[in-house]
Amino acid sequence: MTYAVIGGGVAGLAAAWELARAGHPAHVYEPGRIGGKIRTSPFAGRPVDEGPDAFLVRTPDATDLCSEIGLGDLVAPSAGRTLLWTRGRLRRLPDGLVLGVPGRLGPVIRSGLLGPGGLARAALDLVLPPSHPAGDVSVGDLVTGRFGRQVATRLVEPLLGGIHAASLDELSAELTAPHLLAAARRHRSLLLGLRTQTAPVGTQSGPIFLTPAGGTGRLVEELEKALRAASTVFHAEPVEAVRAGAGQAGEAGPTVGPGGGNATVSVTTPSGSRDYEGVVLAVPAPVASRLLGPAAPAGLGSIRFTSVALLTVSIPASQWSPPAGYNGFLVPHDEHRLMTACSFFTNKWPAAGVDAGHHIVRVSAGHSRDGRVDRLDDAELTASLIAELSRAVGSPLQPAESRLSRWPDAFPLYQVGHGSVVEGIERALAAWSPRVAVAGASYRGAGIPACIKSGRSAARTVLAAGARPEAGTGLTAEPA
Ligand SMILES: Cc1cc2nc3c(=O)[nH]c(=O)nc-3n(C[C@H](O)[C@H](O)[C@H](O)COP(=O)(O)OP(=O)(O)OC[C@H]3O[C@@H](n4cnc5c(N)ncnc54)[C@H](O)[C@@H]3O)c2cc1C
User: Fold this and answer.
1) Which terminus of the chain is more solvent-facing, meaning fewer CB atoms within 10 Å of its CB: N or C?
2) What's the pTM value of the predicted model, to 2 decimals?
3) How many domains does one find in the chain?
4) Percent of the chain with pLDDT over 90
5) Atom of ligand 1 at shortest distance to CA of 290?
6) Which residues form the domain of 245?
7) 74-75 and 209-212 beta bridge pairing
8) What's the average model confidence in pLDDT over 150-156?
9) Which of 396, 412, 428 is the last residue of a domain?
10) Which residues make beta-bridge pairs with 279?
């Protein structure tokens, strides 16, 4: 029995790994670079990530996968603090924040980040009646309702909004801040609730983030090696269509009769069609929608995406040095800057090798409510980001080297109700063909661990369908 995985990003590779471990080395279709958005390449003499630079270890999905493939040399970023570029200068973020939400008011008062009105409003969380949201709500509504607008825009938005390249008002609390929602449901005060929750983000012992020594790209390199060693086959071509039942590409309907014992899924590429026992679609939702054609669940096409870009620069130490003990700074969206965050790579990852003469800095841009990343050409984007960086650090910077990495439509926007949309997609697909499952950042989280989890889970779904001779009986010719 052979299975196919469409997409060789981390979700697809994790799906292929799960299939290989079950004794079914898959065919992986990836027309571009293996690894998708995980990419590490040489810059200024050392490996520097062009996309993600670490993964969260709160859930074991990424660390488990690393140990299964024998990738043991994981490193943590240095324990540096984070700054905020707000109201004209870089200011220290207070301690005790849980994704920007205060777990204590003292450090927020001392930080000077909130005005007197903002502080008074934040303290109201302690006395306001409980909010106890029943269903999904936006993070903006949840945080503003408890703490007021200043906490939302100056503390939570730069952290949580920055991670998702979106405004809090657009983000589903269920998906992007489940611990906040849980605290709001269980406790009257969010501040006190966060304090009593077991091990909220940022308070557990041990590192919060890890990455393979040499960069996150090594995760996908080592995974690819392990997959090839386990007889996984890689096809360097794009998939054009996925159809349930052996048949011609472009047919919406299956060719499976009642009983469905011989049900297969056909995958079409420019070089022809092949039939598989099951298929994991580990491509972004709009691509999955296109490949499934008339059978695509409607929800697939409703998910929006934001483009981001990452500028990496090497700055001569004679021009500027990042402050010791700090790993970078965040930029609140209401500052209307192009950059959303800046990471002092050489401070954050000393293990990558320190060159006393130069500092490497990674500057991020891209937000769901700011189309400039899509509009500006490479030269304009680079020049604008260097100008903003110079303003932020207070020195005119002329980088010795720069590299712009663009990630078009990279970040899914998890809007309120996204969880229900995903459940609807999965239900519709299962009803149409249990042999086809979706995986990847579009659905239940864009972080590397969430993508790994979704890839492995999708692989188990199609394996279970392949093991059941009646799996094809649910097929219908109609879109679900
Ligand atoms: C700049 C940036 C920084 C990030 N930082 C972090 C971080 O620090 N920590 C973290 O955990 N996460 C981070 N992320 C998020 C994380 O990297 C991504 O969510 C994750 O890598 C996505 O994996 P994926 O497999 O779902 O999708 P992708 O990596 O997008 O893989 C999908 C693959 O499908 C392929 N494909 C498309 N069409 C077809 C087709 N027709 N046929 C076959 N294949 C096709 C594509 O070529 C691609 O390789 C970051 C992302 C970006 C862009």
Assistant:
1) N
2) 0.93
3) 3
4) 85
5) 41
6) 3-38+216-303+417-474
7) antiparallel
8) 95
9) 412
10) 4, 436
User: Residues 113, 329: contact at Cβ < 8 Å?
Assistant: no
- Going by alpha carbons, the residue nearest to atom 45 of ligand 1 is 7
What distance lies between CA 355 and its chain's CA centroid?
30
Q: Tell me how far the alpha carbon of residue 110 lies from the centroid of ligand 1, in angstroms.
A: 39
- The two tokens of residue 95 are 């301690």
Same domain, 272 and 364: no
Which atom of ligand 1 lies at the shortest distance from residue 50's CA?
1
What's the CA gap between 288 and 61, in Å, rounded?
24
Collapse the DSSP code of 18 into the 3-class scheme (helix H, G, I; strand E, B; otherwise coil) and give the result: helix
Residues 157-174 have a mean pLDDT of 96
Q: Residue 203 falls within a domain, yes or no?
A: no
Q: Which residue has the tokens 């997409």?
A: 7
Instruction: Specify the CATH number for the domain of residue 141.
Output: 1.10.3110.10
Q: How far apart are CA 155 and CA 101, in angstroms?
A: 7
Pocket probe mutation, ligand 1, options 283, 348, 362, max atoms within 8 Å of Cβ: 283
Residues 354 and 440 in one domain: no
Greatest extent of the chain over all pairs of C-alpha atoms, in Å: 75
- Measured by CA distance, the residue closest to atom 6 of ligand 1 is 52
Beta partners for residue 405, in sequence order: 310
Q: Rounded to whole angstroms, how far apart are CA atoms 106 and 109?
A: 5
